[in-house]
């Protein structure tokens, strides 16, 4: 039996349920408690109220790049978008690398089809999971089982939390408390 404490929380749920909002809220509250938070967030890019792409945001520096866009000319296609592997590898992957080195907790929003088009992203995701740092990540709802299985995470080391409109606020508080405890344990 694996006796390591849980150190990874994966949040999943239907699109639009508030996964990214939950991660931002937890990040802000961890920072308010004095913890160093690192990693990457995704955000919608909208033009005239219509989503035209997704941005990558480095939590530490605030730098933004383009993850995918309808006007992106090169890169793998996911639906109407093309993935910008250059920004994903340079900004997204590097933000996670720095979080592994310097942060108290690693946040990754999101592990989805676009992000998994990058071998470097998957490599650094595995490195983050294998690190001693607590991890909070959102996972595309269709990939949740495959990701946990591929990363060889079991119930002893990782928790999968499914959120919906009814539980998302309560779950954010529970995740905040769990991560705070994980950080304290990791600092020993």
Key phrases:
188 residues, Rossmann fold, alpha/beta, 9 strands
Task: Describe, in short, the structure shown.
It is built from five helices and nine strands. It is of the alpha/beta class. It has a domain at 8-40 and 92-187: Rossmann fold, CATH 3.40.50.
List the helices and strands and how they pair.
Elements: E1 8-12, H1 19-32, E2 37-47, E3 50-58, E4 64-69, E5 77-78, E6 81-83, H2 85-102, E7 105-111, H3 119-130, E8 135-139, H4 144-150, E9 158-162, H5 168-187
Parallel strand pairs: 1-8, 1-9, 2-7, 7-8
Antiparallel strand pairs: 2-3, 3-4, 4-6, 5-6
Helix pairs in contact: 1-5, 2-3
Describe the structure.
The protein is globular, with a radius of gyration of 16 Å. It has 188 residues and is of the alpha/beta class. Helix 1 crosses helix 5 and helix 2 runs parallel beside helix 3. It has five helices and nine strands, in the order βαβββββαβαβαβα. It has a domain of 129 residues: Rossmann fold (3-Layer(aba) Sandwich), CATH 3.40.50.300. It has a nine-stranded mixed sheet with strand order 5-6-4-3-2-7-8-1-9, with helices on both faces.
Give the count of helical stretches. 5
SSE string, helices as H and strands as E: EHEEEEEHEHEHEH
- The termini sit apart by 22 Å
The CATH homologous superfamily name of the domain at 8-40 and 92-187 equals P-loop containing nucleotide triphosphate hydrolases
CATH architecture of the domain at 8-40 and 92-187: 3-Layer(aba) Sandwich
* Strand fraction: 25-35%
The global form is globular
What Rg, in angstroms, do the CA atoms define? 16 Å
CATH fold group of the domain at 8-40 and 92-187 = Rossmann fold
